[in-house]
């Protein structure tokens, strides 16, 4: 069974073609600068990578090009588009109604359009990406896999904000959580490694966007991102959690509008805002190692907040069996992992410094100290595989 996974952003469309009988990735790539000028990168194992400029005026042009590349005699991996059995779409926000991955029909799309206000950045491109794919592949099923659905079993105490309840009822202001597909994947791998479906797991997805999730008995019970991906730990350019009064205070002091202050907290804060150097963790670490105090402070704030949230989730679950690191920083940054795990022995978290420093990139690693009560694991995330798996299960 061949499944195409599509992740449409405002000016990009990433894709992976899976053979789900063998679970192999047959091809993957990215169309970038859609609506600007257009560029495509296409990779297939065993073939030379293909990179070219392309005229990509919209998502329809992008998906048409993707299908052309997948079926190309030289660059392709399938003889015709008919070989694709289903398409899985990454959708960031499923609102309160789309609580599980679902075949996308008219009702689902109408609902997604009705909640675009909750997800103004990622909602419209996901919808136009789906519509473009449906147009060029009308006879197969298209499945939506929602970042929020991993959190759909939350108890109200975990998702209702302590503000007037009518605001939740009227505007659906609540914690939704994001990165759910990644947390679901890595916590599932951790459950398998521990051979315990009921394990208490804290997963740290630390990348340009970062979130932390607590999973217990196979279900997420809390997560650090909230109404939007702005909540929780500091990120590349996002502040993470703040005293809410900071917002009107900045607006008054700097004479900013709501949109301007939102932009400041979304694109000019986090690692970039504090360090003044970069949103990229590697750049900030390089500067910190060269003695830049603000770069060091930015990293200290990140570590401080990750520890704080991990600790609070251990308290919520009355224990922890595994702590998992994933995504760009979590998978690659041994120094940050070591900092987070430092002085956590009270909770049973102790790592083997040597293993942490030398574990190979891109592979699952158990970095726990011998005899540690808690397993500390590095697990490369694989959201695309999760999307392909849900799509297979809903369409086979
Ligand atoms: P992601 O959003 O998951 O692609 O992660 C991007 C983040 O991962 C950026 O802040 C990168 O600096 C960080 N990152 C990637 N590789 C490394 C590395 N080897 N060491 C430290 N940070 C890294």
Structure description:
This protein is an alpha/beta fold and 396 residues long. It folds into 2 domains: 2-146, Nucleotidyltransferase, domain 5; 195-378, Nucleotidyltransferase, domain 5 (2-Layer Sandwich). It is 39% helix and 19% strand. The protein contains 15 helices and 14 strands. The chain has helices at residues 59-71, 106-114, 123-136, 156-159, 165-171, 180-194, 246-254, 258-267, 270-275, 281-289, 293-317, 327-332, 334-341, 353-358, 383-395, and strands spanning 2-8, 13-19, 24-32, 39-43, 50-53, 84-91, 102-103, 141-146, 201-206, 210-216, 219-223, 322-326, 365-366, 375-378. An 8-stranded mixed sheet has the order 5-4-3-2-1-6-8-7, with helices on both faces. Strands 11-10-9-12-14-13 form a 6-stranded mixed sheet, with helices on both faces. β3 and β4 form a beta hairpin. It is globular and about 55 Å long. The termini are close together. The mean pLDDT is 97.
